[in-house]
Design a protein that fits this description.
There is one protein chain. The chain is an all-alpha fold. Helices cover 63% and strands 0% of the residues. Helix 7 runs antiparallel to helix 10 and helix 9 runs antiparallel to helix 10. It is elongated, with a radius of gyration of 24 Å. The termini are far apart. The N terminus is likely disordered. It binds zinc ion. The site of zinc ion has 8 residues, from loops.
Length: 230
């Protein structure tokens, strides 16, 4: 339906909408590439990063989510090397240094765009923040506090103790392998929960991931303090 609206001629849309308020019209059009204009020269259809007429950098599209800003598929299981490549390519083009000879207005857009791309990349890079972000896109927040099942709490306490008591490289590396494989399992579960829109399962899994990631951080500290070379 949205596509049909954007592809139609503006006058036709206005008639078809039959006097629906201007605010609705603005909501439908703002940020949509097909109808936006270059901020500098008013050239319509600024669908790329740069205006085809005056070559000025365009503002980020406010309707785009982080996946769309970077240009990767909207899946929890994303291709991390493709993400890194797209990010690097974008940062090369958007780097504020490239806009030294441009107007102040365009420099400001490049700074804002560049920091938005950084934020999008760091959010999508890590499975925990990526999963939390997808949950938000689907209209659900990760609660700050959740009740933990006693079995899970017990498991976390035991793991913490295990890390604290580990006194040989073999032992800490074994625990690290176990935690990593738990995190892989949790990521698989999170992927399934997000695909099937099972939000309570997704939240439960994300909370568990948080705890295991903090154990993983502790393990890294121990490995560092033991000077283990890998
Ligand atoms: Zn232009």
């Amino acid at each position: 339906m949205m596509l049909a609206i954007f592809n139609a001629r503006p006058n036709a849309i206005w008639l078809r909408m039959g006097g629906v308020g201007v605010s609705v019209w603005r909501t439908l059009t703002s940020g949509a590439n097909e109808t936006s204009k270059c901020w500098n020269c008013d050239e319509p259809s600024a669908s790329s990063l740069f205006c085809r007429r005056c070559d000025s950098l365009q503002r980020p599209n406010a309707r785009q989510n982080f996946f769309q800003i970077i240009g990767v598929d909207e899946h929890f299981r994303l291709d991390e090397s493709a993400l890194a490549k797209k990010f690097k390519d974008l940062q090369k083009v958007l780097h504020p240094d490239k806009f030294n000879n441009k107007t102040r207005a365009e420099q400001k857009i490049s700074e804002e765009y560049s920091s938005l791309v950084n934020k999008a990349y760091s959010t999508l890079l890590h499975p925990l923040s990526r999963g939390t972000y997808i949950l938000q896109l689907k209209g659900h927040e990760l609660p700050e506090k959740t009740d933990l099942e006693s079995g899970f709490l017990h498991e976390i306490m035991e793991r913490n103790e295990e890390v604290e008591c580990a006194d040989t490289p073999e032992e800490i590396l074994r625990i690290e392998r176990e935690i990593k494989s738990i995190l892989v399992r949790l990521q698989n579960e999170l992927n399934d929960a997000l695909i099937t829109d099972d939000f309570s399962a997704a939240i439960k899994t994300l909370v568990q991931m948080k705890y295991y990631i903090s154990i993983e951080d502790q393990i890294k500290n121990v490995i560092r303090s033991m000077n283990i070379v890998r």
